[in-house]
Every structure is written in C-alpha cells, then in structure tokens.
Design brief:
The protein is α/β, with parallel strands linked by helices and 374 residues long. It is 38% helix and 17% strand. Helix 1 (15-26) packs across helix 7 and helix 6 (194-206) runs parallel beside helix 8 (256-266). The structure holds NADP nicotinamide-adenine-dinucleotide phosphate and ligand F7E.
Length: 374
C-alpha cells in the first residue's frame, strides 16, 4: 500500500459519511467528500468539519460519470468509500429507476472512473453493500455464505453493486470489497428511518409536541448496531491483506415493537401494546420523569397501512464471526440498550432546544401522520 493516505468519500453528507470522515481525519488522512448541489442546507452532519485543513469537498454526482472522473483524477485517492445511494427502501418502490441508476450503475461509474484515471492498482475501494441483499431470507442468522434473495428495488440495485465489485476484483485484480452491513443507526440517522422516527416521536410526545406516532409493520425484526462502530469496520476492510467481503452486524435481533417500547420508556413513557395487525395500539400505562401524567390511558402509537411495503424484509439477523476473527472488530462495543439511550437522549435535548412553548406539530410529523412522507 502507498504511504499517502488520501480518502475520497461519496455520500459524505450522509449518516455514515459524516462518522467516517471524522474517523479518517483522526487517523491522519486527507479526506475528500463528494457533494451534490441542493436548494436547502443539507450539510448539517459535516458542518463541524468544514474549514479543517485536511477536509475538502467537491461537487459531483453518482449519476454523472464525467464528474466522477474529474474528481477522482484531481484527488488521486488511495482509498474510495462509495457510500452514496438512494438509501431508503420504501422510497425505492416510488423511485425505482433513480434508485437503480445511483445504487447499481453508480457503482460501475465509480469503478470506471478509477480505471479511466489509471488508479486501479493503487486505489482500494469500499462498497456500501447491505443486509437487504438477504431480503426474503433463506437462513437465519445470515453470514457471508447465505444466498441472496433481494426483496425491493433498492436491494436489487444493491445486488448489482455487490456483483460488479466482485467482477472488477476478479477481472482487473482491483482491491475492491463489499461490507455487507446490517442496519446501523445513530443520533444522525435520517428522520424517516424507523428508529429515528421513533426516538424523535418519543421525545416530542413526552414533551407535549406531538400527539401520536404512526408506524407500519411492528413485527419486523432487525439487527441494529451503532453507526459510529460500523464505520470503523469499513476502514478495517480496506486495511486487510486481501480484498474480501464481510458481514457487519451485532449478532442480536429485536423487533420494531421492542425498539418502540424501549425508546418510549427512556423518554418516560411506559407503553402497553394491545390488538393485532393494523388494529394494534400502544397505550400509555405509566409515566416517569418530566412526561405529563395526562398521557396515561392515551393511545400514543398506531399502525398505518401507509408505512407497509409491497414486499417487506422481516427477519434480518447477522453473524459477524468473520469480521471478529479476521479484522478483530468488536460487534458488542455499543449494546442495543445503549444505542436506544444515545438516540433518545439526543432527541430529548433536540426537542427541548427547539423551544417553542406552544404545542406545535412540526411539518415533518404532520406529513408523516398523513402518510405523505415515508
Ligand atoms: P444516507 O444517510 O441516506 O446518506 C446517503 C448519502 O448518499 C448522502 O450523502 C446523499 O447525499 C448521497 N447521495 C444520494 N444520491 C446521490 C447521488 N446521486 N450522487 C452523489 N451522492 C448521492 O445513508 P447512510 O445511512 O449513511 O448509508 C450509507 C450507505 O450505506 C448507503 O449506500 C446505504 O445504502 C448503505 N447502507 C446503509 C445501512 C444503514 O443501516 N445505514 C446499512 C447497509 C447499507 P445528499 O445528502 O445530497 O442526499
Ligand atoms: O425499516 C419497518 C419497515 O426504513 C426497518 C436502510 O439504511 O437498513 C435500512 O433499511 C423496518 C422495515 O430500514 C415503519 O417495514 C415499520 O421492516 O428503518 P427502515 P430498512 O428498510 O431496514 C438497510 C440495511 C439498508 O441498507 C437501507 O439503506 O421497519 N417499519 N414501521 C418502518 N420503517 C419505516 N421507515 N417507517 C415506519 O413507519
């Protein structure tokens, strides 16, 4: 490997891109990020890094080959982390063609940009693959040898990304690998993914700023880890002696219902679930801390068909044995309980800081309730 440490991160403004940037800057890398132009400020997650001498941003888009060739040629990276994607599974049913263009062909564009710049022998590439590849799972728990059965336009696009990485590794002897990451969450998680939607709603309901939370499939099972721990593994995968794919997961599984119960408890609200399917409800049976006693007896969680998917992946559970053994990665650094605690505590403080005394529903909460935004 070269002595220069120059990383190029696509998807730098996202949850993982922001944590990975911090990690690589700490490790002494020059970090370059690819950003898209937007009419609103979307750089909240990396605002604290802008202005640092080793942190640089470049305009580019995974849908635009020339922009990628230009940025790769200019930066001459020793490592590329391809994190950019349309990453929302439910949205991929509404925008399947865009999802395929960015999440499938976009990976090919990154690989070809590296070849066009003659960096294929010096630049290592990490591809953000996903547990969604296992989809309608064929075994539980899932490891590197479990057959794939993608179950959404997002997963089908990511499957192409996985295979084109493998193909370029074999055809051109490139050091390119996939991290098959199971769900990882944090206080920086996008607000329409289920965990963050729940922790924000729990905080808002506890502080009298929202009446109810509407969710989809409460029975869905996920292996949820902490994003800050997972970006470390992305780096470890590229420091390995040879290019290989790894499953990254905690090895523990919980339901959406369990996440909801725990998050509301942390916010001071004890929930009891009653009923089944679309009629299931989460009723407040006790409060603690600053949560209002008026909440007791109220239905705070309801199920809405708006958040059901045409096909849903319901049983993800990863086996991180290989990453533990070969990379020395610790899948238990942050427990499930600690993850929920970190997210709820962050959102309690955020909601408190939002400040308005009156009971205001944010636009997002309103849109979520009406099912306009998923
Ligand atoms: P995220 O928060 O949704 O971030 C996605 C990033 O991709 C954002 O920076 C976004 O930019 C960028 N992006 C989207 N379309 C783009 C385009 N056409 N050109 C350039 N950039 C584009 O996702 P994340 O949770 O950090 O996940 C990172 C990666 O890991 C994604 O590829 C995701 O599919 C994959 N993954 C995530 C998980 C998970 O649980 N988080 C698990 C497995 C795999 P804007 O800010 O401009 O939108
Ligand atoms: O859904 C169920 C939903 O949207 C998790 C992405 O980072 O991880 C993420 O994809 C589960 C699903 O994440 C609601 O049906 C119930 O079964 O938080 P999610 P995801 O689909 O697992 C994978 C590994 C990625 O690669 C993706 O990029 O929760 N669910 N009720 C709900 N989901 C949402 N979003 N909203 C609900 O109201």
């Amino acid at each position: 490997m070269e002595n220069r440490k120059v990383a190029l991160i696509t998807g730098v403004t996202g949850q993982d891109g922001s944590y990975l940037s911090e990690l690589l800057l700490e490790k002494g890398y020059d970090v370059h990020g690819v950003i898209r132009r937007s009419s609103v400020d979307y750089r909240e997650r990396i605002a604290h890094l802008e202005g640092q001498p080793n942190f640089h941003l470049h305009y580019g888009d995974l849908g635009d080959s020339m922009s990628l060739v230009k940025v790769v040629g200019k930066v001459q990276p020793t490592e590329i982390y391809n994190l950019a994607a349309q990453s929302h599974v439910q949205v991929s049913f509404d925008s399947p063609e865009f999802t395929a263009d960015i999440d499938a062909t976009g990976v090919l564009r990154v690989l070809e940009a590296v070849r066009a710049c003659h960096l294929e022998k010096t630049c290592r590439i990490y591809q953000a693959s996903t547990s969604e590849l296992y989809g309608k799972v064929e075994e539980v728990p899932q490891n590197e040898n479990t057959p794939f059965h993608p179950y959404s336009p997002y997963a089908v696009a990511k499957l192409y990304g996985f295979w084109i990485i493998k193909e370029y590794r074999e055809a051109y002897d490139m050091f390119c690998c996939s991290g098959i990451l199971f769900n990882h969450e944090s206080e920086r998680r996008g607000e329409t993914f289920v965990t963050r939607k729940i922790t924000l709603a729990a905080a808002r309901i506890a502080q009298g700023r929202q009446d109810k939370l509407f969710l989809g499939n409460l029975d869905s099972l996920r292996d949820w880890g902490y994003a800050k721990d997972y970006v470390e593994c992305m780096w470890l995968i590229l420091q390995n002696d040879k290019p290989e794919d790894f499953v990254i997961a905690t090895g523990e599984q919980h339901s959406v219902r369990q996440f909801t119960e725990l998050a509301f408890r942390r916010a001071g609200i004890e929930l009891k679930f009653e009923g089944e399917g679309i009629h299931e409800k989460g009723i407040c049976v006790a409060v603690s801390g600053s949560a209002s006693a008026d909440l007791v007896g109220k239905t705070l969680v309801e199920v809405s068909e708006d958040f059901y998917r045409p096909t849903d992946v319901v049983n993800l559970w990863g086996d991180p044995t290989k990453a533990k053994a070969k990379l020395g990665w610790n899948p238990s650094k942050t427990s499930f309980e600690q993850l929920v605690q970190i997210m709820v505590d962050h959102d309690m403080a955020k909601v408190a800081a939002e400040g308005a005394a009156a009971k205001v529903r944010t636009n997002l909460a309103e849109y979520l309730e009406k099912g306009i935004v998923k």
